């Protein structure tokens, strides 16, 4: 939406010229009074986040942020279609019912429908954003077809209706051992009849790029069968998703025109060329240019990036994050980047698996200005890119911590679950004093040092080829272990990152074990295995450490008189040694491409759940009303135009409702048909 109000814009400019001291004072007051909570439904809590520093940007920088956020939103529907082939038609049908239904909107059945719609919005489709299970409506198929569809003049295909209520396509992503992971996954990266073995065979002979500089084969395409032959439908202008990609390109061209420097403009130009051609060699060239564009206050993530949603780890989900530098925190955390080689040299790895030269690890704390695709409404708190190993080794990587997202989580939370699942008052005290900084440092160490650490042996393929469906959880666990190992190292205190490295490490170890063995179980249904890669890695790290320390009671399982279970760490120094041993082994597995060892670790420790303990955790958690998952609405960036329709300012407004934002997005950023 455009605002044509010159006088209001002038008033804003005058206000922005006010005293810096007063402005900082007002900003602090606003932060203190800011209401992060929006709404809650099912297992979801919706929050808001602020954009610190936006008002201090130059007009050109504000324009750059605005254009980049618009580019991100233009591709929003790509993520929906990637997640499941019926998602866009189902969303269109559900939104039509929501808009046009003429019946009783106060009935329990319609309220259940509204909750279901909100869950679908949050997950970018009909599969749960975290568990990957298909969302189950709490209303009947008869009510849906006989009441909602008929009384809203809404049409939906018989196949789409059926899939809402039957057991077909029950898992968006299925990485369980013993299954055909492709056939049993509903993700729309492959035609429904393609098998796991066919994918393996296809990429044995597919173009992998120059020797030593492999492209990310399959990253930006759907694998389909045409005339009996497997072919890739590339996501590009003129190809699959072309209508949305053309919109992305248009906004990126505007962004390039207001880039802060030549390096940014070069990177944006290559990103535009990539979207136009679909060339993965151009994608690599873009990633190299993007990694090198470190100057300026604005940065972005845009493309088909993370491969968690592909059971075989080839295809990237559409994702965008627009970032403003957090100047204060970035300076404080820069010390990790500056000392990346020290961490590598002192890691408990086999010397042959260490990098001799850790190149260009760039770490910043940033404030998010907008997100879309796989980053919204559920968002990461830290990112390390690019993912291509050879680019990381030769050109470095960028690691960012999303500071305002983390702040919003912290300001919207409570301490109830901590007090319920912590073993004693000392554990609670440590968490309350050091928990937040421990989390921030763990994220930083995970992203900056962890993902940048280690090297693959010569002649060994990429992890998605060698470790296959275990590659993602192994990599996340490896990076977690790097962070855990160094969180109780005096180096952190020497670098000025904490006033007490031992207390910091104790709080971090307590929190990780508490979450990995118990607290995270509130996120899955009783009887289910753990399947999401990050949850799996937290359990296999914690469970392996618990078992390894059993002889010396390093971590003690305690059942109190009331029957409640706790895990108490008796020896933090020995636990650190155990984390170091596991880190060495996970790096060996990656370096050598040891599939069987990865399978043994993940399946043996990370997937199966103690059902009695799970039942207990769920019962203990019933007293808490806060939902276990959180996500965000995005601030609305609104341009102020002069009489010539030129942008003279960009205003930040907070959305009042989750539903309102979702409908606004559907009305303004739907560039794809229901079948693509």
Summarize the structure.
The chain has 676 residues and is α+β, with helices and mostly antiparallel strands.
Structural features, described:
This protein has 676 residues and is α+β, with helices and mostly antiparallel strands. 49% of the residues lie in helices and 13% in strands. The strands form 5 sheets. It has a 5-stranded mixed sheet. A 3-stranded mixed sheet has the order 1-2-12, with helices on both faces. A two-stranded antiparallel ribbon has the order 3-4. A hairpin with a 5-residue loop joins strand 10 and strand 11 (565-569). Helix 5 packs antiparallel against helix 6 (108-123) and helix 23 (533-548) packs across helix 24. The chain is globular and about 70 Å long.
Topology:
Blueprint: H1 6-16, H2 20-33, E1 37-41, E2 44-47, H3 59-74, H4 76-83, H5 87-100, H6 108-123, H7 141-149, H8 158-165, H9 196-205, E3 221-226, E4 229-234, H10 242-257, H11 262-277, H12 280-292, E5 298-304, E6 318-325, H13 327-338, H14 340-345, E7 361-373, E8 382-385, H15 389-395, E9 397-402, H16 403-412, H17 416-421, H18 425-450, H19 463-466, H20 471-487, H21 490-494, H22 501-517, H23 533-548, E10 555-559, E11 565-569, H24 572-592, H25 595-607, H26 611-621, E12 629-632, E13 636-641, E14 647-653, H27 658-668
Parallel strand pairs: 2-12, 7-9
Antiparallel strand pairs: 1-2, 3-4, 5-6, 6-7, 8-9, 10-11, 13-14
User: What helical percentage do the residues reach?
Assistant: 40-55%
Q: Which regions contain 5 or more consecutive residues with pLDDT less than 50?
A: 1-32
Number of helices: 27
Summed over residues and divided by their number, the pLDDT gives a mean of 92
- What is the first-to-last residue Cα distance? 28 Å
* Structural class estimated from helices and strands: alpha+beta
Question: Main beta sheet: strand number and arrangement?
Answer: 5 strands, mixed
Oligomer: single chain
The neighbouring-strand order within the major sheet is 5-6-7-9-8
Q: What's the Cα radius of gyration? A: 25 Å
Label the overall shape. Answer: globular
Q: What is the number of strand segments?
A: 14
């Amino acid at each position: 939406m455009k605002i044509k109000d010159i006088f209001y814009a002038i008033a804003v400019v005058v206000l922005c010229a006010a005293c810096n001291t007063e402005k900082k004072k007002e900003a602090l007051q606003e932060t203190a009074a800011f209401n992060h909570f929006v709404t809650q439904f099912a297992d979801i809590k919706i929050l808001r986040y602020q954009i610190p520093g936006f008002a201090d940007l130059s007009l050109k920088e504000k324009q750059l942020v605005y254009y980049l956020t618009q580019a991100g939103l233009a591709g929003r529907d790509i993520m929906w279609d990637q997640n499941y082939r019926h998602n866009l038609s189902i969303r269109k049908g559900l939104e039509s019912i929501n808009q046009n239904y003429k019946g009783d909107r106060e009935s329990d059945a319609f309220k259940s429908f509204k909750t279901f719609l909100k869950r679908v919005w949050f997950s970018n489709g009909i599969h749960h954003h975290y568990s990957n299970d298909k969302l189950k409506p709490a209303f009947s198929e008869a009510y849906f077809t006989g009441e909602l569809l008929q009384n809203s003049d809404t049409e939906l295909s018989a196949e789409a209706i059926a899939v809402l209520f039957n057991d077909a396509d029950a898992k968006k992503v299925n990485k369980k051992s013993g299954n055909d992971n492709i056939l049993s996954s509903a993700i729309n990266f492959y035609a429904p009849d393609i098998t796991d073995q066919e994918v393996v065979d296809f990429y044995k002979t597919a173009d992998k790029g120059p020797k030593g500089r492999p492209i990310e084969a399959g990253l930006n395409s759907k694998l389909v069968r045409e005339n009996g032959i497997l072919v890739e439908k590339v996501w590009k202008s003129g190809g699959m998703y072309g209508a949305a990609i053309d919109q992305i390109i248009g906004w990126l061209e505007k962004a390039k025109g207001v880039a802060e420097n030549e390096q940014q403009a070069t990177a944006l130009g290559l990103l535009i060329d990539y979207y136009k051609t679909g060339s993965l060699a151009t994608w690599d060239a873009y990633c190299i240019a993007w990694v090198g564009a470190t100057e300026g206050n604005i940065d972005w993530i845009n493309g088909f990036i993370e491969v968690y949603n592909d059971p075989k780890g080839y295809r990237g989900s559409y994702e965008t994050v627009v970032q403003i530098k957090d100047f204060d925190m970035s300076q404080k955390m820069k010390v990790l980047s500056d000392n990346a080689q020290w961490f590598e040299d002192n890691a408990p790895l086999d010397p042959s698996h260490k990098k001799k030269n850790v190149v260009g690890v760039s770490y910043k704390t940033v404030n998010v200005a907008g997100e879309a695709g796989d980053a919204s409404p559920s968002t990461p708190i830290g990112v390390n890119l690019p993912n291509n190993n050879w680019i990381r080794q030769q050109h470095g990587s960028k690691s960012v911590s999303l500071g305002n997202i983390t702040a919003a989580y912290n300001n919207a939370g409570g301490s109830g679950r901590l007090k319920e699942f912590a073993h004693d008052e000392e554990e609670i005290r440590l968490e309350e004093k050091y928990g937040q900084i421990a989390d921030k440092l763990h994220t930083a160490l995970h992203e900056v040092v962890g993902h940048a650490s280690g090297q693959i042996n010569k002649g060994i393929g990429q992890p998605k080829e060698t470790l296959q469906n275990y590659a993602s959880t192994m990599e996340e666990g490896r990076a977690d272990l790097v962070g855990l190992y160094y969180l109780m190292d005096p180096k952190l205190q020497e670098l000025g990152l904490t006033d007490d490295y031992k207390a910091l490490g104790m709080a971090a170890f307590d929190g990780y074990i508490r979450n990995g063995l118990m607290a995270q179980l509130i996120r899955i249904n009783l009887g289910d295995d753990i399947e999401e890669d990050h949850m799996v890695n937290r359990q296999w790290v914690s469970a392996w450490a618990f078992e390894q320390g059993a002889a010396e009671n390093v971590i003690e399982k305690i059942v109190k008189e009331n029957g409640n279970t706790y895990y108490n760490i008796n020896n933090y120094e020995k636990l650190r040694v155990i984390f170091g041993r596991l880190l060495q082994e996970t790096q060996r597995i990656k370096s050598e491409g040891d599939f069987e060892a990865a399978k043994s670790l993940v399946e043996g420790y990370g997937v199966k759940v103690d059902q009695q303990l799970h039942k207990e955790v769920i019962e203990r958690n019933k007293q808490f009303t806060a939902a276990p998952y959180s996500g965000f609405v995005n601030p609305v960036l609104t341009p102020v135009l002069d009489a010539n329709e030129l942008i003279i300012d960009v205003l930040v407004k907070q959305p009042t409702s989750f539903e309102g934002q979702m409908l606004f997005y559907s009305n303004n950023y739907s560039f794809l048909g229901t079948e693509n």
